[in-house]
Structures are given as structure tokens and as C-alpha cells.
NADH-quinone oxidoreductase
Amino acid sequence: MAKLSVNGIEVEVPNGASVIQACEAAGVEIPRFCYHERLSVAGNCRMCLVEVEKAPKPVASCAYPVAEGMKVFTDTPMVRNARRGVMEFLLINHPLDCPICDQGGECDLQDQAVGYGMDGSRYTEEKRAVKDKYVGPLIKTIMTRCIQCTRCVRFAAEVAGTPELGGTNRGENMEIGTYVEKALTSELSGNLIDICPVGALTSRPYAFVSRPWELRKTDSIDVQDATGTATRIDSRGPEVLRILPRVNEAVNEEWMADRGRFSFDGLKRKRLDRPWIRRGGKLTPATWPEAFAAIAAKLDATAPERIGAIAGDLSDAESTLALRDLMRAYGAVHLDCRQDGAAIDATRGDFFRFNSSIAGIDEADAILLIGTDLRRESPVINARVRKRWTQGGVAIAYVGPPTDLTYPAQHLGDTPAAMEGFAEALGAAKRPMIILGRGALARADGAAILAAAWALAKESGALTPEWHGFNLLHLFGGQVGALELGFVQGKTLGAMMGGEVDALWLLGADGFDPARIGSETFVIYQGHHGDRAAARADVILPGAAYTEKDATYVNTEGRAQRAFRAIHPPGEAREDWRILRAFSEGVGKTLPYDTIDAVRAALAVAAPCFAAIDALPAPGCTDTAGPSAEAPLSDSAFVYPLASYHLADQIARASEVMAECASIYGGAAPRLAAE
């Protein structure tokens, strides 16, 4: 540790730390444009100049290491004049178009020009102009505003792992771009907007929509993958206008995947805003009492063993609990939440959780990916694995079709037998980690693959009281919560599809081909989008999307998280648990809760993970007995579950922005469980 003083304040920082980090430790703000805590140091902008005792000139604090006994001064005449000069140079060619810039009101250049700049400029020559670059349907470029901080270049190369941006020419002629004009291919490209300190990179869907002071900001969770990314929903009136990430070091750091960020326009398209009943073979509008009466008449006339329910991939825990309790009140025992047909063993939590935790990736020294295209199934977790690779000392391999993970990884093969090819490396590691893709279990031999992956983890020493190296990666935010609540019992989804039930309640379940449902089965669809399953329904109950309700979700590692309502549901749509509670009262099977707090108290009783929000299950593995499997492993190749990253869920399928992305980047129609 090195001791130094910053403006007379004594601080102690690790050897090798930079002066800017020491200043932050002392609580002193240092302006910066090119410096970012999660990127390599570039030293481009010189805005972070400070004075160091005995130094002949101001030094760039981001690139200057600390030394024992150093004395740093951040507000002397030398520093003030240096910063004013740097700001004057940065504004020489800047267009100064703040009134029409989408970054206005949250722009680092604006803020620092006010705080550290001059009140005028001595530059009278014509400003240079730079041609705007096309980098895809998500990011709008106004490159005349660019100050060449290279944050975007470093993010693309270091975090996203897609080094497509760079600088061409030199000096006054330098431009940032993609060399050959093309759409960026990263699933994390939206983060370029967040790290750009000026208005050179802004959101194309958000262009000229609003100003930040007009927006209502609400904390939420991205449920369109299972990472549990902390987000902020910005809304105005009845409409969501943008979604941004929040910092959560244990989960997403400060990054967010593109699908959850840009598909919000799907929240206002293809929405269900009133109940519907099928009359004479045609869906017609109805009132809530009429819809409830039609459902009650059918359920009352159906034997309990002929009633089934399926929970969807985006369903919140409160609604899933309410549906489970309603089915129990009817005596129904057929429940399933595995729309993809994955052979998940829900008898123990560590059979279906990401047990090492997302932050635990930083400790792993050998990682095996089985049947998962991690880059597209969870871009943020993939970025964490890439971060671990950049630190060195880790071996990475994968089993599945060849793919680009954005970091070097040994391809062992594409069949289950190839898993053994990495056993020696796992056994030699101190912190071995296996990440099993959920799609790997959606096969005839899924149970055998689950058992084989657990056995491999046990044999390689990945299951100890200090370390749990077995991890199952889920795809969507509602999947783990349903498993925690035991929404897996009785007949499987496949059996219920095959006509073995007469009444089927679908809670936002759209992840399978509805043509599989028996023609005589009475279908109740409760959800927020008129997607696949709604067209097959006999009764439709309009629910609320995740942005329209206070709800609890569980991410892939078993962490319970809260999302809050940003806007109200459209029309007559209501929160899903309230719909179920109202229906239960109408049929004389009243559920034992009528407030959100009462529902959450019941959640805490139903599953331990809901008792503490944002907490993880106990680390380590104390019971190494694995899941059982009767059938042997097959020699068929793995198939990744997401045929199209941009169209993976019902919100994204309703989004025009995601449809444009899918047409540009390719990708077939989303793969259904029947396939």
C-alpha cells in the first residue's frame, strides 16, 4: 500500500493504483472523458490533469501511478488553467448543438464545460464536419460531436469482444468508425451509448423523443433473459420511452443486453387490453364477469385430474404462486413451467441454479460450457466470462455446434460424449466450473445429460463445501421462480399437450407450438400479448407486462429481485395475481391474500429464496448425490435453443426494432419446443 496526500487529505491505496483512483479514495472529484473504471487506460482527453509536487507540468491522473509520499493538488491555478485549455481545445470542433442533441441534459461534456471550462473561445476558424457512420439499427451516430476519447473502441474490443470500431487517419482528420460501413454485431452494443461522454453515439429508437427531465424513472429488472440485470425504466405518461442498466456489481456490473434494452416498443404492440371469449369458433370481446363465468363453468364440470396449468417464461413469482394455489383449490395436480420440455430436476435447488453465482465466474480457473451458446443466451454473463479470460489463468472449452463466444475456447465436439474431453483440465483446477445450457436438457436424453454433467462436476472436485461448480443457465426471468415454487408436478407439458387434460390454464405461456394442444382441450390464456397461444385460447384474460406491475423475479443464480411498476396496464388489463385472486373469490375458492404484501409473505413461506431479497443461497455443496437418469446418453448433436436472439420472447416478437434487427442480423423464426 502507498500513502499519499490529495489536497492535504491523507489516503492509502494499493501499489500500482493511479492518481485518479487515489483522488476518488479521498473523495475528490476529477473530471474525465476517456477514463472509465472498467476499460483500459488511454490518456486521450487530458481533462484529468492534476498538479503533483515537484512535477514540472500538470500530469494526467488516469495514467500516472501513485508513489509513497506523493502530494497531489487538484484545484490550483495551474490545474484550473490547464483544464480550461483542454476544454477549449475539445470544443474547437464540437458543433455546440445541445438544443437538438439527445444527450442534452445528461452529457458529460455539458457538465464539465460548465464546471471547468472558460466563458468564451478564441477560435474563429471554421469547424470541421465528419460524416455520420451507419453502425446498425440501434445506435445513431453524429460523429461531428466525437471527441475521440476511444471509450467505444475499447469497450467493443475489451468488454464486448467484437473489435469492430477503431480510428482512421491521424490528427485533425481522425475519425472513429467501423472501417467498412456495417452494423455492429455485438449483443451488448447499446452500452456504447451509456459510455459515450458526448452525443456522438445515441439511441436510434429514442431519437428526438424526450428530454431526461420529462421522464419518470423506475427501478426494475430485465426479465427477457435470466441474468437479472438491474435496470431503470424511463417513462412518460402511459408509455415506456427507454430502458437503461443500473449498477449491480454482483450481477451485471453496469452492462445490459440489447434485447432487454431496445425491445420496449413491443410493450405497446399486439397488447391484450380486454377479455375475450370464443363464441361460434371466433374470439369476441367480453366483460370480466362473462370471462370468469365461462372459465368457472368449464372447470366446475371438469374432473380435477383433467385440469392442468403451465406457467410462462416471463411470469412473476406472485402470479405463479397464485395460479399454483388456485389449481390446488380445484384439486388439480398437473403443473409445469418447462415450456421447452427441459428435463430439469426440481427436487433440489442446486440441480437447477447457477450455483457458483455470476460473480463466482471471477474465481473460476477452468470453465466448461455444455450445450449453451452463452453469447446469445446471456450476453452479460458471457461478458463476465470474457473478463475472466482477459485476466489469464483460466482454461475454457465448450461442447456444442461451433460458435463465436468472443474469446478463445476449445471446441470439444457437439455431442454429449465430448464432455469427457475436458475432465482432466477440470480435475486439475482449483475452482472448476461447469455451465450447462437449458437447451441441452430439452432433448430425449435431457435427464441423462443433467446426471452426466453433475457426475462430471463431482468427479472433478467442483462440488465441495467451499465451492459449487455446477451451474444451469436459464433463458428467461420467470423460469427459476416457478421452479423454486414447485410448479413441476403431475403430467408434463408434453402430456398435457397430448390431450390428457380437458382444461388448460396458460399463464403467459407462449414458448411452444399451440398446434400441439388437443383440439378438445379448453384453453384459458392469461397474458399481456396476443402471441402464439392467445390465438388458440377459448378465453383470454388480459394481464400486465413486467413494466406494469410490482413483481418479484428470481434470476438464474437463485437471487430474488424486485421490479416496480413504471406504467399502468392498458385498457382493462390487470396484474396477473389480482386476476387470479378475483376469479378465486368469484368461484368460492378465495385465495388467502388480497394485498401484494400478503402475497409476498406467502412467497417467503413457499420457498426460502423469497425471504431475503437480493440474497443468494448458501455457497458450496454439502450433498453431492446427483439427479438420477434411466435412459443413456444419445450420440445426437446439441442444438442451441435460440434460433434468433432478437425474437426470443413475446415482447421482442412484438417489437419493430427487434424485427429490424432480426432482418439485418439474420436468424430463423424462434425455435419451438415441438421442434
About this structure: The longest strand covers residues 230-236.
